[in-house]
Amino acid sequence: MATALRNDFNVEASSSTRGFNLPQKLGSKLWAPMFAMSLMGFAAGFIIALVRANAIVDGDASTVEALRHFGPGAMFIGFAAVFAAIAFAIARILGEFRDGGGRVQEASGGQVQTLKMPATARAFIVGMMMAMMLILAGAVAHLVIGTQIAGGDATTLANSESLFVLWEGVRRIGVALYLVSISLGLATIVTVLRFQTSRVRELAG
What is the pLDDT of residues 17-27, one digit of tens each? Predict the structure, then answer.
């Protein structure tokens, strides 16, 4: 396989379509399970919020404070999953463009040119992984803190407010990074569409 020489896009040349790459294969398989997991996380967070609302009236302070951490812990597992589902769906879309575009070129009898992974796609993958770790770290920390408070840890209960603010900040940074990563994924789709439009015109000519 030789590298095709183009001034506008960085591509690879082959005699047949190259199909999905590894991230795109993972996206095709994982977007639906991640979406289902997000629904479960959101449902759990909502139920915990209802339980906490009742506990504020009838429960003790430690129970209320423990539930205060359990709620965001469950809810942001849902957020991490739904953002992952969106990211995996973008990867799947890119895979369909890559495979479908290659099949069109192959059917035309011309050289099959496949766009190499753009810098935006690489940044999309790295950013998504970092954002996932931040959100999950915040969610797990809330669950651990809630468990310690429920177990009667007086020190953790006394520091609950500051710990909540700390991990809320971590979660928000993760969400912001995920949104930036998703925008990079969408920018990659634009790049792919520009390349395929150019390639179709070449084949038609």
Answer: 888 989 999 99
